TrEMBL record:
GO BP field: carbohydrate metabolic process
Any GO molecular function: deacetylase activity
Protein name (Swiss-Prot/TrEMBL): ChbG/HpnK family deacetylase
InterPro entries reported in the protein's UniProt record: Glyco_hydro/deAcase_b/a-brl, YdjC-like
Pfam families, per the entry: YdjC
Entry superkingdom: Bacteria
Keywords for the protein's UniProt record, in alphabetical order: Carbohydrate metabolism, Hydrolase, Magnesium, Metal-binding
Native source species: Ilyomonas limi
Keyword Metal-binding: yes
Coiled coil start-end: none
PANTHER family: CARBOHYDRATE DEACETYLASE, YDJC DEACETYLASE FAMILY MEMBER
Amino acid sequence: MQNSKLIINADDFGCNSIINAAIVSCFCKGIINSTTIMVNMDGFEEAVKLAYHNGFANNIGLHVNLTEGHPLTDLAGTGLTNQNGQFIMQAASNPRNLLSPFTKSKIKSEIREQYNKLIATGIIPTHIDSHQHVHTLPVLAPIFIAFAKEKNQKLRIAAIRRRKNFFGTAYNTLLNRYIKGMGVHFTDRFNNVNYFMKYLQKKTNFIPAFEVMVHPSYNKDMLIDFLENTNLEENLRCMLELYKEKYTSK
């Protein structure tokens, strides 16, 4: 069986101290091998120190954030921030907020500033993704793809799931085809732990590269995926064992 590349990426590094600690623990336990960092959140400086101290500064990508916290640039007049200058959670998902050339220009500047802030720490990102997957939105995707191309970076593709909304699945399929055609795709497939477990159980031949997304945090002393509300360590160890049995060379 041919070797296959598996990336297990923890989103939201730098969000806060609890998430930072959970992600560090995941690295130390060997159940993740990648993370993406939010440079505009309160836990960013701590996250950078932890990454260097624990030896995974070379396994960090940029988690562009256009939906939470304060931006690094002035986004007044774009509809993306409130009167206090904080991002409005769902504003980037509203196409009407994104159509003007003024807003697109401001978003490009914000992405660039977030990228530069990470670079200034000495960390060269492995790839780029985004908080709440805004880089896959129809208006924003071309901006992210162009930026990735400019910086010789790779970009997370969209998750393909069975949906009642046929058009959503079709759009993500076409978007992934375009990202791959532009040569900026980080992996060939992307999804969550549950999807990948089912994929491992069904498939006999594996694809070259797969990214699994997780969101580590703590519930008391237990490592959890706070989006899925599941025992993260247990699920990842089961997934890795199955992956090892099926897809690593003897």
